[in-house]
Each structure stands twice: as structure tokens, then as C-alpha cells.
Amino acid sequence: MTILNLDDQAKVSAYQKFVRENPRGQVTQDPLWGELKANWNHVYVYHETDGQIDAVMSVLTVEAVPGKVLAYAGRGPVADIEDVDLIKELIKEALAALPDNVFLLRMDPEVQYSDELNQKYLDAGFQTRNTQVTHMHGNIQPRKNVVLYYDGRGEGATPITNEDELMLHFKPKLRNDIRRAFRDGVTITFGDSEDDVRALFDTYVAMAKNHGITHRPLDYFLRMQKLWAGTGLFRVYLAHFEGQVIAGGLGFAYGDEIWYMYAGSYREFGKHNAPAAIQYEMLKWGLSLGKVEYDFGGIGEFDVSDGLYKFKHEFAYHDPNAEYIGELDWVVDEEGYKDYLKQFD
């Protein structure tokens, strides 16, 4: 196990290459994510076999209770999660490099929940937070996601190899909505420029206002754009109607997956179905790259009474539910951990 030296550009490049190309790679495990999270500190740990990186854990830290620090490996580590001994060695190395006031090192890898895997971590001394957490915001990352699998999982599904098969994967009403958008004159562009990000942000703020929810500041998205522009891993999709941007979506392409992360739209243009058209174009991006999964992001429940699920499920109604293992917590300071969990009660 080794701590990544950020001055060693060759090793940093190898680390990033592994995170970006490994099937389970995640943007939140890229050191660039640590640069994006300007108010967090970071430590990056990796394991090698025969000189080749085969496991990484990117850990960000922030004061989460007074005087005590949370260490968080978001959607990580990128490693064989079944190999608990390896995971514990990564944690040991990270903790040795972290401040003494760390009370918790938390992981939430994007792997499917099972009783067996959960018990394996409990037996190894971890505390886990999954099925007992009943609200989607009770975990840092939602455990329940809608995912479209291009390889044809689920009852009635077949592998998706072209745009026609992609369209047929959707519910019939959704196909009509997408076609209606294009008949109405909606056009979709994509890019990674500052102008693209600013246009997306305006739709994102409008959406947040309509739903009465908070939103991230513009500076966050501008930093994101500067860090990932030109990598091919980051795209902003914009829907245009009569010379105006009316909806947007933002996603990352890492490992076997497209992760649809942020979106927005203007309610007054809702009849033109621009958000559906954007999803279709972003799904085509994943298809063109040969991805296995398109992650629509988190939901509350796998039920049409949940508005997020209702929209996303129309694209992926064949696909099995994605319910992840949740949070695997290595507790260093039990008192600090209990204080931290109070905010989620």
C-alpha cells in the first residue's frame, strides 16, 4: 500500500488511468474530485501487483462534528469489494496518513446489496448503514438508483446495440414524448465549455426554485468545467427551442458507466418534453462509448409514487433495481460517530 505522491506526475497519471478505465471506476475517486471539493482535504492510497495499480482509495476529509474529522471515500474504493482484507489494508494506510482526530472512515462503493456482503463487513468489524436507513437522504449517496443496462438485463430486455434498440427499450409513451420534442423543434447540443455550464446552471436554478430545494453555487460548476474540459469524460447537454436553452443535463463517463449527475429545466416549456430528449441523447453517448450502465441517479423508492422514480423508470422499466450496499463505516472514535449520526435521526 502506498500514498500517492501528487508531485509524481507519472504515478498520478497511472492512478487516474486506473480510476477512469477500471470497470467500476468513479469520478468521485479521481484526484480531480479532490480539487473540485475545495473545502475538503485529501489522501489517495493505492495498491500495486507486479508494478501495476489494481486498487485505489481516494479519501476526502472535512470537519463533520466539532473538532473531529470525517474521512470519506465517495463511491469508493475502486477495488475488489469482496476482498475485505485488502480493503482493511487500504483503510489502515489511509488512516496512518490522516489527522489523529478522524472519527470515521466511510466508504459507499457502487456494488449491489446482499445480506452476505453486508454480513461479511459486519464480521470484519465495520458498521453498515443500508436497509435500516429509510430515507434517500439518510445516506450521503442514495442507495437506490435507476440504472439502464445496455447489456440487456431484466425480464423482457435484450442487449442494446444501436439507437433503434435503445428507443425500443423505453416505455411507448416515453418514445412518443421524445419524438414529440423533436417534432416541436427541440434540438440538443453538447459540449464542455464555460458557456455550456452557465446555460445549464440557469436551468438548474430554475428547477430548484420550482421544487423549493437548495442548489450548488455557480462557482462549483465553473470549477468542474475547468478541471474536466477537454478530457472527454464530462459533457453538458442543452435543449434549445426557438433560440433559447430550455433544459440541460450534465454527466460523467467513467469505467463502464455514464453517471447523469445534474439537470434543470424551465417549467413553462414542459410541454415540449426537453428533459426526455436530453436523456435520450445522453443515453446515446453511453451507447457510442460501449458503456454497460447508464446511472440516472438516486431515488427515494422503487415506486411510481416517487416522482424521481416515475420519470427515470420510463427509460429503464425492463432493468433490475439497483440497490447498493450503502455505507461501510470503519469507526475510529465511537463517541464522534454517535454525534455525527444524530443529524440523520
Provide structural commentary.
This protein has 11 helices and 14 strands. The chain has 345 residues and is an alpha+beta fold. 41% of the residues are buried. The protein has 2 domains: 2-140 and 324-344, Gcn5-related N-acetyltransferase (GNAT) (Aminopeptidase); 147-323, Gcn5-related N-acetyltransferase (GNAT) (Aminopeptidase, 3-Layer(aba) Sandwich), CATH 3.40.630.30. Helix content is 35%, strand content 27%. The strands form 2 sheets. The chain has a 7-stranded mixed sheet with strand order 1-2-3-4-5-14-6, with helices on both faces. Strands 8-9-10-11-12-7-13 form a 7-stranded mixed sheet. A hairpin with a 2-residue loop joins strand 10 (244-254) and strand 11 (257-265). The chain has helices at 9-21, 31-36, 84-97, 115-123, 163-169, 172-183, 194-211, 218-228, 274-288, 307-313, 334-341; strands at residues 2-3, 41-49, 52-65, 68-73, 102-107, 127-129, 144-149, 187-191, 234-241, 244-254, 257-265, 293-298, 322-323, 327-331. Helix 6 crosses helix 9 (274-288) and helix 7 packs antiparallel against helix 8 (218-228).
Topology of helices and strands:
Elements: E1 2-3, H1 9-21, H2 31-36, E2 41-49, E3 52-65, E4 68-73, H3 84-97, E5 102-107, H4 115-123, E6 127-129, E7 144-149, H5 163-169, H6 172-183, E8 187-191, H7 194-211, H8 218-228, E9 234-241, E10 244-254, E11 257-265, H9 274-288, E12 293-298, H10 307-313, E13 322-323, E14 327-331, H11 334-341
Parallel strand pairs: 4-5, 11-12
Antiparallel strand pairs: 1-2, 2-3, 3-4, 5-14, 6-14, 7-12, 7-13, 8-9, 9-10, 10-11
Helix pairs in contact: 6-9, 7-8
